[in-house]
Amino acid sequence: MSGSDPGPLTIAEAARLIAGKRLSPVELTRGLLARIERLDPRLNAFITVTGRHALTQARAAEKAVMAGKRGRLLGIPLAYKDIYATAGVRTTAHSRLLAENVPKEDAEAVRRLAAAGAVMLGKLATHEFAIGGPAFDLPWPPARNPWDTERFTGGSSSGSGAAVAAGLALGALGSDTAGSIRIPAAYCGIAGLKPTPGLVSRRGVIPLAPSLDTAGPMAWTAEDCALLLDALAGHDPADPASVPVPKESYARALGSPVKGLRIGLLRHFHERDVPAGAEMLQTVAMAARRLAELGCRVEEASLPAVQEYNAVGRIIISAEAYALHETNLQTRLSDYSRTFRMRVLSGGLIRAADYLAAQRRRSDLIAATARAFARYDLLISAAAPGPAPLLRDQRPDEGFAIPFLATPANVAAIPAAVICAGFTARGLPLGVQIMGPAWSEALVLRVAHRLEEALGTRARRPDLSGAGEPAARVA
Predict the structure, then answer these.
(1) pLDDT digits over 77-124, tens only?
(2) Can you give the CATH number for the domain in which 354 is found?
(3) pTM score, whole prediction
(4) pLDDT of 138-183, one tens digit each?
(5) Could you say which of 81, 242, 337, 440 is catalytic?
(6) Residue 467 in domain
(7) Is residue 253 part of a domain?
(8) Is residue 156 annotated as part of the catalytic site, yes or no?
(9) Which residues pair with 172 in a beta bridge?
(10) Is residue 248 part of a domain?
(11) Could you say which of 180, 201, 211, 337 is catalytic?
């Protein structure tokens, strides 16, 4: 098995090479560990690198391959957002409160990927407890965007987005409560999927707002997300939120035709509700044209305003996050970052009547979204108003002052994927969001895959040739 440097690889490409005994899982892992050592001081994507553990897993995978075992994730190096429990490896949630937290068991999602033969490279930066935002008063700095290290990665799966975009890991796990997989996917120019709640087990994942939390894959392509979802999806009897659904292969479904699908274009999302920049509008329009050229019927569609979904989501998240952290906020307030305190303390002012009203309104919005899918197979919109903003411009009230285009899918309890659909004149990625009815992950990923192919964005990677020195800290 060759030990030569294979260059940037997708999961699908690496799997084919490994299965053909043309790529060594051990050498692939060593190459990525060396890349992490060289590039991560500038990107801050990793909190913990598990090099010894990774090489042990890679050797086991290589031995299995040589013995004739096959698997699409066998020997594939991945990394996990640091809210996923990992046995014997610290899981910090990017917070000093859990700086010494070492779980005894893996999260179920981590266990399933390990059972499929994946290699764990380490644990990835997030926002504190997946809500705190980029903060410089924590033991670890925030992750930086590989396309421009002065720019934001999006959050809260910040290290996951940065690591995949920079080629430090072939795939990653993230979590999504109000857009935390899809916003980093958009800003970092990768693919990310928020599944239907209950499809992927959340057991062993540190919660933020259990009513809205989901766990899902992030990778360079929609095809890679499908390969990861094949291993992740499935009922977990030990997770009360897990739902038993028929088993299917999301990767195999990618080859089905898309001709004749009805696509609703939510222009009001990014033209009126949260106005996007000119380059983002052009990117969405190009994506719509490509879908039409693939044989889809694209028509303008509408849902309730983005602001309605966000208002509901913010009340639920603030109330549930405060409830989870109330004791520590009362006894260890100063140990949290300033940004976390600003985002979560307000939850203590939300009345039970307000929380229940938000949950009732959520039911209305779920029903309104479902009615749209009686007419359309899928809905598309911009994933964000534009490219990644500057890291120094991030506000503690992000998500409150300006609504997220990603949050409607969380409130509506539907699957949604983001793919890189184009680039600005300065070379920054722009993302498009594809949403489907509950349990339609196979369809969402199929259209995402075909759209990626039609747009041709996956050949372009960030230029990291000068990324050898740590970036200057931002006050």
Answers:
(1) 999 999 999 999 999 999 999 999 999 999 999 999 999 999 999 999
(2) 3.90.1300.10
(3) 0.97
(4) 999 999 999 999 999 999 999 999 999 999 999 999 999 999 999 9
(5) 81
(6) no
(7) no
(8) yes
(9) 79, 218
(10) no
(11) 180
